[in-house]
Amino acid sequence: MARTLWDSSVGKKTVMAVSGLVMLTYLVLHMIGNLKIFFGPGEFDHYSHWLRTLLEPFMHHGWTLWLIRIVMIVAVVAHALSAYQLSRRDIKARPSKYVHARPRASYATRTMRWGGIILGLFVVWHILDITTGTVHPGFQPGHPYNNVVDTFSTWYGNVIYIVAMLALGLHVRHGFWSAAQTLGVGSRTLDRALKSTANVLALLLTVGFIAVPVGVMTGVVS
Q1: Calpha distance 31→59 (Å, rounded)
Q2: Is the pTM of this model over 0.85?
Q3: Before 103, cis peptide (omega within 30)?
Q4: 171: burial class by Cβ within 10 Å (0-12, 13-18, 19+)?
Q5: At what angle do helices 155-182 and 112-126 cross, to 10 degrees?
Q6: Are 211 and 32 in contact (CB under 8 A)?
Q7: What is the C-alpha separation between 168 and 105, in angstroms, rounded?
Q8: Which has the closest alpha carbon to 147: 96, 75, 212?
Q9: Is the peptide bond before 57 cis (omega within 30 degrees of 0)?
């Protein structure tokens, strides 16, 4: 049954929608946590430490955070794999060019695939930069506030992050509405509300995430 569902286009779109909403929930919470940096190093570092002590003593130190990471990895892989397979299926279904010009899609729709690739590459870089410090020369284990400030004190750190967050905004704007349609939430009466919600979410996430590097660049966070 699960195999049959996965093999169908409807099943793949459902996987994309559900995994997308899981990631969206994480992003909202992650953004709120990131904004704690404006309250100073003590507040931000304490928040980082708290993430590793979630559900203690029921869960061992750090286990809850790793469980969240595993769920996110599964969601990202499922989302990317279903998107790729749907794209390949779509190409095979229309191997020749359209005789008549297709209706012009919105900018967000036309950049969904490239946006997904940009975000995928960004996630890898972000982990190597902030989590492991592999590509971060000034990385200090156990000092998340200093690591964030140091990253956004470089021009390339700001460029990579801001470009990725702009791509994220476009992705969320189109993806949220598409997920609602796939899951059967959309209707004529709800369509405008869903699109407005998608626009608001995209704007809040984009502004919320970009606020951190802007805060460092302007000296508000130092």
Answers
A1: 25
A2: yes
A3: no
A4: buried
A5: 130
A6: no
A7: 18
A8: 212
A9: yes
